[in-house]
Amino acid sequence: MDTNIEMNLTPVSLDEIKHLISERAIQGETVLLNMGPQHPSTHGVLRLLLELDGETVVNCVPDVGFLHTGIEKNMEAKTYVQAEVMSDRLDYLNNVGNNLAYCLAVEKLVELDAPPRAQAIRVILTELQRISSHLVWLGTHALDMGAMSLFLYCFREREMILDILELVSGQRMMTTYIRPGGLWRDTPVEFEAAVRNFIKTFPGRVDEYERLLTKNPILLRRTQGIGILKPDVALQYGVTGPMLRASGVAHDLRKAQPYSGYEQYDFEVPTQTGCDTYARYLVRMEEMRQSLRIVEQALNKLPLGPVRSNNRKFIPPPRSELGTSMEALIHHFKLWTEGFTPPKGSVYSAVESPRGELGVYLESDGSPKPYRIHWRTPSFTNMQVLPIMAKGHLVADLVLIIGTVDIVLGDVDR
Amino acid sequence: MGIEQKLGNLGIVTLKLEEVINWSRTNAMWPMLFGLACCAIEMMSAQASNYDMSRFGMELMRASPRQSDLMIVAGRVTRKMSPILRRLYDQMPDPKWVISMGDCASCGGVFNNYAIVQGVDEVVPVDVYVAGCPPRPEALIHGIVTLYEKVKSERMKDWA
Amino acid sequence: MDETTQAIVKTFQERFGAQTDEFRGEVSLILPPAHIQAACQALRDEFEFNLLSEETAVDYWGETSFGRNDSSSEQSPRFHVVYRIRSLPRNQIIGLRVPLDGNAPVMPSITSIYANADWFERELWDMFGIRFEGHPDLRRIVMPYDWVGHPLRKDYPLGYEEVQFSFNFDEIDERKPYAQE
Known about the structure:
The complex is a heterotrimer.
Chain A: E1 5-7, E2 10-12, H1 14-17, H2 23-27, E3 31-35, E4 47-53, E5 56-63, H3 71-75, H4 80-87, H5 95-110, H6 116-145, H7 148-169, E6 178-179, E7 182-183, H8 190-213, H9 217-223, H10 231-236, H11 242-245, H12 253-256, H13 277-300, H14 326-337, E8 345-353, E9 356-364, E10 372-376, H15 378-382, H16 386-390, H17 395-405, H18 409-413
Antiparallel strand pairs in A: 1-2, 3-4, 4-5, 6-7, 8-9, 9-10
Helix pairs in contact in A: 4-5, 5-6, 6-7, 6-13, 6-17, 7-8, 8-13
Chain B: H1 3-7, H2 17-27, E1 31-32, H3 38-47, E2 70-74, H4 82-91, E3 97-101, H5 103-107, E4 128-130, H6 137-152, H7 156-159
Helix pairs in contact in B: 3-6
Chain C: H1 3-16, E1 19-23, E2 26-30, H2 36-45, E3 51-59, H3 70-75, E4 79-87, E5 92-100, E6 106-108, H4 117-128, E7 131-133, H5 169-175
C-alpha cells in the first residue's frame, strides 16, 4: 500500500497523521480519501480527510485554514473606524451582524450609547440579514439534496433584501452602515415602503417553501436520523445557535442578554428536540418567520430622532457645522486624522448571528488602534462536532451534515 | 457576405474558420466552480434568476476542471490555497481563460498582509479583471462580455 | 457584582489565590497557570458554567507609545491567555486571565474539561506559539503546515506589500512575480 499520502502538495508522512486515523486504515482495510478544498458540496474551501469503509464514513478530519485572511492582525494596524470595514468580510453572509458585533464592542469599551432610532434600524437590518442568510442556507441545502429549483427561489427573495440594503447604504453586501455611535446616516424615505412590501410578500413565500419541503418524503428520508447531536455533547463542545436549539437547549443571546433594544420586541425562540438534520431545518424555517415578526414590530415602533450619538469625542460632527463652529472643526480634524482613543481595558461583547454566538474580544491600550481584537466566530466552534455527527453515515449524508452545520468558511478561518 | 448575397436565402452562411471557432467557444463557455469567499455569493446571485448567466451560455458550473473552459477566481486566495489554485488551472484543458473576480483576486483588495496573495496573477495568468468588493452581478456579466470580445478577436494559432 | 459572582470570586481567592479585575461590568479572575485545570473543573462542576465561549491570547511585547510605563513592561509576562466561560442556567459570563512568562510558554490544556478548547488551543499554538500540555493533537490549524513563525505575535511583521500607484507602476511591475502560462 502506498504510504505516502499527499496533503497540500507537500508529501506528509504517515507518522504525522497516524493519531488521527484508525488502525484499519494502516492495515489497508479502509480507504483514505481527500474531499478537497475545491468541491461542490463543501460550501467553500473546506478540506476533509475521510476514512471510508466502502461508502460509510469511519472518521472525518476537517482541515481548515484555506481562507485565513489574517483579519485580526490586520485590524491591529488600522484605527477603530477603518477596522470596521474588514469586519464585513468575515462571515460574508451576515455582514450587518458582524458590523453590529464590532460596534457594540467599541461602544461598550468607550461607554457610548446609540440613540433609540439607530437601535431600531439596527435591529431591522440585522433581522433582514438573518433572513437572507437562512435563505442562502436553505437554497444550498436543498441544492445538495437535489431540489435545484429551490435555490433559484431563495435567491429571488434574497434579491429583495439586498435591494433594501442597497437603498440604505449603497452597497449590496458589505454595507458598513452600522458605525460606532449609531448609523452612517439616516434612512431614505423609500425605506419604510420597501420593508413593508417585503413584509407583505415574504410569509407567502415561506409557506411555499414549507409546502414544497416540510412533508416531502424525500426530505424526510434524507434528513431524519442524520447527524444526531445530543444536548450534552453540544454543550461540551460549545455549540451555539440553531444547532443547539435543535437539540433542545433554548439559549438565544437575543433573549438571554438582550442588546440594541431587543427586549422591547415580542418574539419566540424556536426549539426542537429532534437533535437531527430535520430538527435544524424546522428551527431555521421558524426563525425566518420570527425574524419577520421582529422586523414588523420594529418598523411599527420606529421612533423619530437622530441616528448618531452627540458625543463629539467619538462621532465626527456633521459637515454643515464645520463652517461655523471652531470646536466642530477641531473634533473633525482629530477624529479623521488620528481617530478616537478609548481607555485602557478589555471587553467581550456577543451577539446572536444566524450561526450562533458571534463575540468580539476587544482590548485597548489607549492608542487609536485596537491592541488586540479576537473574533469568537460560531462556525469555528460548530465545526468541531462535524466528525462526531458524521461517524457511521454514508458520504451522501456527510454532504447534508456539512450543510446543516451551516458553516461559512470566512467565519471559520477569519 | 459571399454566396448568400448572390444566390439568396439558401440557408448557407460563409464565414472564416476563425470566426466560427471563436463564436462556438464563446456561446457555450462552462465556468468551473471556484468560489472562495464573498464574491462567490455574488457569483451565485449572478447565476440565479435575477441576473441570469445562462443567457451567456453558462447554464451550469462544472465542478471538475477537466470539463470546464473558464475559471472565475471569486474571492481571496490565501498562501495555503495558491498551490491548489495552480494545480486546478494546470488540470484544465486548452483553451482556457481566467477571470479574476473582485478586488481580492485582482490585487489583494482590502487585505495587505502575510496571508493573502496580492493578486491572483502571481499564480495564474489572468485574462479579465473585474473590480468591486464584491462586484455587482452586472459587473461580473460585463467582465464576461469583455472576455467574449477578447475571445472573438483571438487567432487560431494562439491555442493551436 | 451580584451574589453568585461574589461567591465565585471568594472561592477562587481562597483556593487559588486569584486576583479580580472589573471593567465595564465584566469580572475577570487572574490566576497562575498551574491552577487553570482545577479552576475550570470547579467552574463547571460546582458553579454550573457549562459553555466555553472563548479562549484567546494577547501578546504584550514591547512598549506602545501610549500607556505602558517602563517598569511594568519589563516585569509583566509576555502572554496572557484569556478565557470566557458562560453559564446557561444562571445566564452569566465570567472571564479568566492567565499570565504566562517567556517567549515559548507552556501551560496545561483544558480539553478534558471543555472539549471545544481543542481547536482554540491549536489556534493559539499556531498564532502565538503557546504550547499546551495534555492536548491530544497540537498541530497548526489555519496556517500552512510548513509555515515558520507565529503570525499574531507582535514581533511578526504584517507582511505589508507596497501598493502599486501610477507613480511607481513600472517599478513594481518589474519586480512582481507574474505567473507564466
